Amino acid sequence: MISAENLSCGYGDNTVLHNVTFTLATHRHLTILGSNGSGKSTLAKAISGLIPYGGSLQLDSRQFSEIPSAQRAKLISYIPAKVELFEQYTSVEDFVLLGRYAHKQAYKNYTSYDHKKVKAVLVSMNLEDLAEQNMHTLSSGQQQLVLIAQALVQESAIIIFDEPTANLDPANSIAFAVQLGVLQTKGMTTILITHDLNLAKSMKGAVLFAEEGSAHYFQDSRAFFTEKNLKKHYGIAFNSRALGLNYG
Question: What pTM did the predictor assign?
């Protein structure tokens, strides 16, 4: 279980979120919504251990800040909105293989299982034809898919996706939604940050809406996705039956 109580986080002296409280049961899904700059990614980075936090943030009654980084790397995968840094001549297959680093024994090579896992994930995401290509030759959408593949081979209990469909075309957006559904059937805890309201609506689980330095928590996404509630939080009128792509 992930639980936050009076959680605050930010960067240096700039506290972006204050007094955030929510509980997410293990093997469940949470969608984080909100306007640009509302603190969605900030919260994800606090959960991932990338930035410090105040208040309480626990995983199964243990403070996230007390979990050693090596153990946390096996527990949590964080997929940013785009590839931030990579060696331009790294192949797609080698980049995805880095997702197994947390499981690799020191001074040992990657195992046959590691390589088989990478190949299986590349196939499942229709990336096998790109396996030998260098990362710098890919489009931004293809790079995003490779980032997702890297997280999948990490086999973490918790996977955080930060605007994963921002650079994807409609077909790949739907393919991502299918992959996310598969993860949920495997019992992983998934957290999705997105501006794609139709994708968010298609996900069963909870919603956390970041707004004005804090957040509103909805245990059931259906309670959030009403025309009245959408207008209240976004400040504009919605037709909740026509939010975008049909994710099924």
Answer: 0.85
